[in-house]
Amino acid sequence: MPTDQTHSACMTTNAHNEQSDSAPAAVERAGVSQSPGSFDRRSLLIATGVAVAGVLGLPLIKRAFASRQPVFIARNQRYDGPLQKTIEDGLLATGLTPQQFRGKRVLLKPNLVEPTRNSPQMTTNPVVVLAAAEVFRNWGAEVTVGEGPGHVRDTEMALVEGGMQGVLDDGRLTFADLNYEQVAWTKNRGRASRLVGFYFPRSVCEADFIVSMPKLKTHHWVGMTASMKNLYGTIPGVVYGWPKNVLHHAGIPETVYDINASLPRSLAIVDGIMCMEGDGPIMGSPKPMGLILIGPNCTAVDATAARIMGLRPENISYLALAANQLGPINDSRIEQCGEHWQDLVKPFRMIDAPHLRGLSIDPGVQVS
Question: Beta-carbon neighbour count of residue 55 at 10 Å?
Fold first, then answer.
């Protein structure tokens, strides 16, 4: 495993394909052959650029992990409130500056796993995405919103049901369908799973920053889902199937870790205003929290979110893998900005399942 989180190195050679028997055909449908050197010149330039960025970024990332990682928390947030101001304040509070994003490509990655207007607690609220987009655009970044919904093949339907299409139109934002874009292969830099590498969509490979924008929810397999698990949606369904079956078979905790280790630089803006508890990530109930969490390190942000949910970060399987590899989960190595998480703890109800017992600090009320 790596000793730190690194930028990815999307490559066009050695397109290993142990993900599934159907992957080659899917890759060809995506417009990319597996044959080494068969990408078009533009794809090759994109991949090479990301690789160089990753190498140059290593010393900076290593220095970053020598110190504590900041996590900003804002309370009393509403979807009709001044979210753009909150997000800008949060980014600045965690040490991020407009100069870092000027002229850069920023990919905002919300969660649109299986949107339905009847369960808005399931997916990232579009106004949070729009607020973040305005911040980065004002800072001089080129902003794209991208998602590969995990449970639905009809992305247009997902955008409409999730309310995202109206925001994209009103905000004149470009959308990248990560399930169907042209793909490039990158080495698996985590190697917690058996997968040798990943196919990532073009917009992911092109991005200088990927901003994970999850909905804070319980998860019936791994306990919780926030910024790290949300990045499953950077994996193209056209290669890996729905709901990203290849990843599930290779192990959810292991592939969450591997994907995060292999992506370009990522940061987190978590929609914790209306959350989900119980049988998440799809069937759970609304859990109002009024929170926005922000940080330049997804591992530290998710560990803080787990504590607010009343969960033990060290017992969340993918956070345990990421600890001190991709970022800190120990509270002593996380610098709290804004509100203190200790004042915000409201335990989330979990389903009563053997594999989830032991995650909660106080088991509290469970649902069957």
Answer: 12
pLDDT in tens, 242-295: 888 899 999 999 999 999 999 989 999 999 999 999 998 888 999 999 999 999
pTM of the model: 0.84
Is the pLDDT at 52 greater than 50? The verdict is no
* Cα dihedral 184→133→90→360 (10° resolution): -60
Q: How far apart are CA 90 and CA 113, in angstroms?
A: 26
The number of residues making up the chain comes to 368
Helix (H) / strand (E) element for 91: namely: helix 83-93
Place of tokens 């791994």: 222
Q: Three-state DSSP class for 53?
A: helix
For residue 219, how many C-alpha atoms fall within 13 Å in the half-sphere facing its CB? 21
CB atoms within 10 A of CB 93: 18
Measured CA to CA, the distance from residue 197 to residue 32 in angstroms comes to 16
Q: Give the residue among 364, 361, 217 at the shortest CA–CA distance from 287.
A: 217
Tokens of 49: 């650029």
DSSP 112-165: -SS--TT-GGGS--HHHHHHHHHHHHHTT-EEEEEE--SS-S-HHHHHHHTTHH
User: Counting Cβ atoms within 10 Å, is residue 200 exposed (0-12), middle (13-18) or buried (19+)?
Assistant: buried
**Block residue for tokens 């490979």:** 205
Q: Rounded CA gap, 134 and 171, in Å?
A: 8
pLDDT digits (tens, 9 = 90+) for 149-165: 988 889 999 999 889 99
To which residue do tokens 């370009």 refer?
Answer: 264
